Amino acid sequence: MKKQPSIMIWLIAACLSAGLLPDLVMTICAVQLGEPLSGGLSLAIGFVSVCISLLCFMRSVYLRLGSKPDDTDKKADKVSYIAGAFPCLLLYLIVLYGSRRILPILAAGYVAKRGLFIGITCFLVAALLLLSGMVFFCWMNGCRKFPLEHPVRYFFFRIYLGIPMAVLLWAAVFAMPMGQVFIQRVWEEPNMLIRHLTLMAGALVMAGLLHGAMTLSEKMMEGAETTLPSGKTFSGKRYLPQLCTLFLSLLLFFSHNLAWITKNEAAILNEQMKDSLIEYSFYLTAYDIGGAAGIAKEAVERMDSTLLDAENAKEAAGNEAEQDESAIRKAEKKEKALQKVCARYDIFRTDGQALALFEQFKKYGGADESLTEEALTLSEEYPDSLWVQYTAAVIASSLTYDDATHYDRTAKAILRCEELYEKEKKPTEEEKLSFGKNMAQMLFQVYHDEEAAELLEDLAGADLYDDADICELLAQCYDRSGRLDEAYELASEYCEKKADSPYLMYCAALSALKMEKTKECLQYTSRLASYTADCEGEELENCDTWLFGMLEFLTLNDNSHYTGFQYDVYEKLTEEENAIINENLFFRNYLDAVYLAYHLEDKEETEEGFGKMEAVLSENPKLASAWYLCGVIASNSETAEDRDQAAEFYLRAGELNDSIPAVWYAIAQEYDRLGEYEKGIEACKKAMALLPEQDHGTDWYGINYHCSRLLESLQDAVK
Fold first, then answer.
1. Within a domain: residue 114?
2. Does a structural domain hold residue 8?
3. Residues 524-540: pLDDT tens digits?
């Protein structure tokens, strides 16, 4: 067995090329291209991978057969040798089974539970068959009542060992995504079960023949002749073509399944790289009806055509029934069968319609009133379809604007979706938590804060402070629904008991401000300022936004109907409150600069504002909001020289963080002032793309509204 390490290397190469190579190639290509690969290209990648795998596997089998047994103990070595190539194929299937599961599990955490269960069961059965066969034949060989040296008996011994090999083959197939589709279809269509059982029986026969052929191939390798029961002898070299045919038949049978799986799984893997875990699981469900990878609309059309054919056939059956009694019985049976077909395709068609809507939503990057109405109507028509409810929830919750009328219907779809998910999917605690937070976020988006809070409280249970995401969203729900005491208590308790969460510090400060607890508000704002000054990376963008928002709340007295924060705190600060601010120089300078930026009266105040901002930026020069504030000071300055610098400051802010709507609105205003209308139009569009249409719930200052008016003015100027 000196060649065993080489055999192992070739087997591992075969498994990896068939198991991980196609997934990795297609996933990387999809990420780079930004869209799923075509079915033909996916199939080509799968075919090439399978070919590479087969070549590696055939090399391992060649090495295995080339390893001759030790002549010192033929009987013991014959038993341990176990059917020539069988260990190679066994290891190939086991490692391939594992490798085909690695990438999907790592990428999406999805496990095909039913298929996996059947796969494990098949492995246990195969192991039992293999063990019993080895014990039986070893015992018989030890008693010399059934010597394995006889080629014909050895041939049948290999056929027996071929059975667990074939079971292992199908275990690998069942455990892959195709297993789920197969199981679902088999119970609905008995004819399909018969076809697959026939195919499996053929695989069993081929497996047995392969092992029998391996007996002859060993003799051929040794250059010996084989004696048949009739007394005739022949050389194995004569049967080399037949051996190759049998060998390739089984491998091509397996490669056909592997190529089919690779092609179909490609679209799912492409989508999962772009979407969340929850969306991936729904894509898999939708794919089972032939709707993923951008073909949902075509799938619905095909289903409609099938339904029409079924209805026509039903009508024809009714006409036949009018002729004689035998035709009546025949028509009744046909009608029952057609009713089942219609019911099944109606379900598939519904899911296909939902997926088609979801594709439109993804394609255009959002929803409009027409798409939202269509999705909600479909969800109300089919309240028991999980995929339909989820689609309606995602689409409708993304469309928010002042005085919208679809929020209540959207909330009902979200709650139905949450209930159906728990009922149908039987999720684990982790899956339930992830999905529940997703649903709660959607409820919050459509201003159903009480329902969102109730759902989050149920998810958290007694361990409320163990999940920062739940605490942050729950604090928002409490704050917006007017439960300010609870919002402050939750945010402050988390910061004291667990860790400094920048968003919860912001929530605690804002809730305290609304309850006129100015001292507590300043304390948490100061902590947030210190945290932001030392922050960097992606977290800095969020901290910067929250801190700047709090500073505006403390310094502005906005009397708008929508803002909801009619405060005038800065000018009424007591000595004790100023002392809290003075303990943090970064906080002091930033707060003073915000106040000065919106209350400039002379050149001295402008210079003071720039001086304060210079001190702030010396602490952290990557604060986009600070550069934006420099632009505000320059824009409001009395000197033309300062005003000409405003655009430069705004553009610097946009470079640091291009997701602040106020920055792009300010840039558009500067371009309008400078007469560069085309650039102003582009800046307006960027600002409006970052905000919902005139939704003061998330756009306090109505930037989208004002930006749309500026856009109209700029477009008129270009004409």
1. yes
2. yes
3. 999 999 999 988 888 88
